C-alpha cells in the first residue's frame, strides 16, 4: 500500500462514473435479452436498472422521495434475483433459458452498484483532491465483489463481452483505489490486510524444491510413459497423428513438453503477489470443491474468497492436521471470470491443426472451452472420460496423468451409471467406480508413508536423513503387508479392471501439456501445489 491520498491514473469522480456507465449498458441490452419474457418482468428489470436519484449523496442527505425510489430499486433487484434463482433451480443448469441467465447477471451486478450508491459520501466530499481513504472506507468492497462474482460465475459465457469489460474495468479501478489509499481503519479491512501480508510472505506458489521430489519420489513409479513430442508445432503434431492413425482405431495421447513455455502465465502464475493483484487483493470469489474428489461421500461445493484459498494452499503442506478437507478450484472458467488471467494464456496452435479439421468436416467448428484447476498437492480427478478432445496444460507445479484407451471395454472400466443426488438423477456413466488410490500401490497412490519417502518440501530433509536401518524396520514391514492385503481385497472387487497394465502415464512439469483424445479414460493427481488450464475442443 503506497498511502497516497490521490491515485495516479484515476480519480474518485472517475471511479464513481463507472456505475452509471454499467447501468446504461444494462439498460441498452435489457430489451434485446428479455424480449421473450413477460412485460411485467421487463418492467421490473427497467426499475432495477434505474439510476438512483442520490447517486452522489450520502444516505443522511437523501430526501424522503430519494429514499422511496432507492427502496423501489432495491425491491426490484431482490425480486429479480429470487425469480432467477427459482428458474435456475427448476432446470438442469445446461437447460436454463438464456433470458433468465441474462436477468440473473443483470440483477446481481445492479445489486453491487446499489451498494455503492447507498454507502458513499456527500457530493461535497467527492473531489479529485479528497483522500482515497476517506472515500474507500465507505465502500463495502467484499459485498460488492461477491455480487459481481455471483453474476459472472452463474452467467458464465452468456455475459455480454462489453458488459464484462466494463465491470472488469470497474473492479480494476476499485483495486487501484484500494492499493493507493490508507484503507485500514475498520476491523474488516485490518483483517484483510493481515491476510494479504501473510500471502506476500511466500515468494512462490510451488517451491522449486518440488523438482527434487518428482525425480526421486514419483518418477520411479511411472509404468508405460505416454509418447513425447518436445516443443510441438502444428507440423510436428500433424505428422505424429498422421503416422499413428492408420495403426489405431482412434487418436492416441501425446505428452507435449514445453508447450506453454512462452506463455506469460508460465512466468507470472507462480507468484502469490501477482495472483493477489489480479484478484482484487484476493477479494474475488470463486467456486470450489471440498473433499478428496467429486465421488467422495463427504464431497461438497461452495464459494470462497480467492485470497483465503491461496493462503490455505500455501500453508497446506505444513499443516499438522491432515484431516482438514481438501479445497480445490476445479473445472472453472476462471480466465473468463478474472479478465487479466486470460491475457496470460495463449490457445495452442495445435487446437487449430488441420488434423482435427479433417476429423469431422460435416459439422461447424467446435468452440474451445477453457477451464482452470488450482489447488494443493493431493487433489484428484477420479478416473473418467470426456466427450471432447482435451489438451491439459500444466502452468505451475506437477501432475500425474494415467490414461486408458477409449477402445477398452466399458464393462472393464466399471462406469458408475445413474445416481440420485438430492432427488435429482445424475448420469455418472463417464466416471469409473474404481478408485485407483485404493487399489494401486506406490508413492503416487498415497503409500509414501510406508515407503518412507518425502512428499513435500517441508519433509525432504527429515526423510532423506533417516538411518539406513529404518529401511527394514519391523513396523514398516508390518504396515506394508497390511496395506498390500487391503489393496488386494479391493482389487478383487474389480477383477476385470486393468490394474497392472493396459494404460499409459506421465508426469506433467511446468510448461508441459498432454493431449487426451475423446473417449480416453483418465485419472489426474496433483503431486505439488498446482495451476493447470484445460482446453476442450
From TrEMBL:
Question: Which domain of life does the protein's organism represent?
Answer: Eukaryota
SUPFAM superfamilies, from UniProt?
Answer: Clavaminate synthase-like
Q: Which protein is depicted?
A: JmjC domain-containing protein
JmjC domain ranges (all copies): 313-537
Q: Name one Pfam family in it.
A: Cupin_8
Amino acid at each position: 500500500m503506497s498511502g497516497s491520498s490521490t491515485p495516479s491514473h484515476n480519480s474518485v469522480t472517475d471511479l464513481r462514473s463507472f456505475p452509471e456507465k454499467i447501468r446504461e449498458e444494462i439498460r441498452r441490452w435489457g430489451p434485446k435479452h428479455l424480449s421473450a419474457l413477460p412485460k411485467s418482468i421487463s418492467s421490473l428489470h427497467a426499475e432495477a436498472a434505474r439510476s438512483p436519484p442520490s447517486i452522489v449523496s450520502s444516505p443522511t442527505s437523501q430526501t424522503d422521495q430519494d429514499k422511496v425510489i432507492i427502496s423501489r430499486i432495491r425491491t426490484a433487484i431482490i425480486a429479480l434475483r429470487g425469480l432467477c434463482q427459482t428458474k435456475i433451480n427448476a432446470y438442469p443448469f445446461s437447460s436454463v433459458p438464456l433470458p433468465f441467465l441474462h436477468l440473473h447477471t443483470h440483477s446481481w451486478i445492479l445489486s453491487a452498484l446499489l451498494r455503492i450508491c447507498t454507502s458513499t459520501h456527500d457530493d461535497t466530499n467527492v473531489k479529485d483532491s479528497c483522500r482515497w481513504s476517506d472515500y474507500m472506507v465507505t465502500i463495502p468492497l467484499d459485498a460488492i465483489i461477491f455480487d459481481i462474482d455471483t453474476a459472472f460465475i452463474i452467467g458464465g459465457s452468456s455475459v455480454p463481452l462489453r458488459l464484462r469489460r466494463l465491470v472488469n474495468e470497474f473492479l480494476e479501478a476499485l483495486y487501484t483505489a484500494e492499493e493507493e489509499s490508507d484503507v485500514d481503519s475498520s476491523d474488516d479491512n485490518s483483517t484483510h490486510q493481515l491476510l494479504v501480508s501473510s500471502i506476500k510472505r511466500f515468494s512462490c506458489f510451488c517451491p522449486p524444491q518440488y523438482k527434487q521430489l518428482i525425480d526421486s519420489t514419483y518418477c520411479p513409479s511411472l509404468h508405460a510413459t505416454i509418447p513425447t513430442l518436445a516443443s510441438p508445432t502444428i507440423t510436428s503434431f500433424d505428422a505424429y497423428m498422421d503416422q499413428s492413425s492408420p495403426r489405431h482405431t482412434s487418436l492416441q495421447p501425446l505428452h507435449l513438453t514445453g508447450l506453454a513455455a512462452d506463455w506469460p502465465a508460465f512466468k507470472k502464475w507462480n507468484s502469490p503477489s501477482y495472483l493477489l493483484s489480479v484478484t482484487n487483493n484476493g477479494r474475488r470469489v470463486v467456486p470450489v470443491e471440498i473433499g478428496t474428489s467429486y465421488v467422495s461421500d463427504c464431497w461438497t461445493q461452495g464459494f470462497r474468497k480467492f485470497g483465503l484459498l491461496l493462503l490455505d494452499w500455501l500453508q497446506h503442506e505444513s499443516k499438522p492436521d491432515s484431516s482438514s478437507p481438501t479445497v480445490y478450484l476445479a473445472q472453472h472458467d476462471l480466465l473468463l471470470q478474472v479478465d487479466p488471467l486470460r491475457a496470460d494464456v495463449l490457445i495452442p496452435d495445435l487446437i487449430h491443426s488441420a488434423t482435427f479439421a479433417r476429423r469431422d468436416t460435416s459439422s461447424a467448428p467446435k468452440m474451445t472451452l477453457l477451464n482452470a484447476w488450482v489447488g494443493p498437492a493431493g487433489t484428484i480427478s477420479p478416473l473418467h472420460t470426456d466427450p471432447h478432445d482435451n489438451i491439459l496444460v500444466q502452468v505451475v507445479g506437477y501432475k500425474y496423468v494415467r490414461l486408458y484407451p477409449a477402445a477398452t471395454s466399458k464393462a472393464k472400466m466399471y462406469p458408475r451409471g445413474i445416481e440420485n443426488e438430492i432427488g435429482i438423477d445424475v448420469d455418472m456413466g463417464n466416471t469409473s467406480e474404481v478408485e485407483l488410490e485404493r487399489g494401486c500401490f506406490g508413492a503416487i497412490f498415497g503409500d509414501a508413508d510406508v515407503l518412507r519417502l518425502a512428499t513435500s518440501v517441508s519433509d525432504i530433509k527429515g526423510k532423506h536423513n533417516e538411518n539406513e536401518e529404518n529401511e527394514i524396520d519391523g513396523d514398516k514391514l508390518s504396515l506394508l503387508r497390511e496395506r498390500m492385503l487391503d489393496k488386494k481385497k479391493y482389487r478383487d472387487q474389480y477383477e476385470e479392471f486393468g490394474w497392472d497394465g493396459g494404460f499409459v502415464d506421465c508426469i506433467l512439469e511446468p510448461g508441459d501439456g498432454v493431449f487426451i483424445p475423446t473417449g480416453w479414460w483418465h485419472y489426474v493427481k496433483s503431486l505439488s501445489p498446482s495451476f493447470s488450464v484445460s482446453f476442450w475442443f
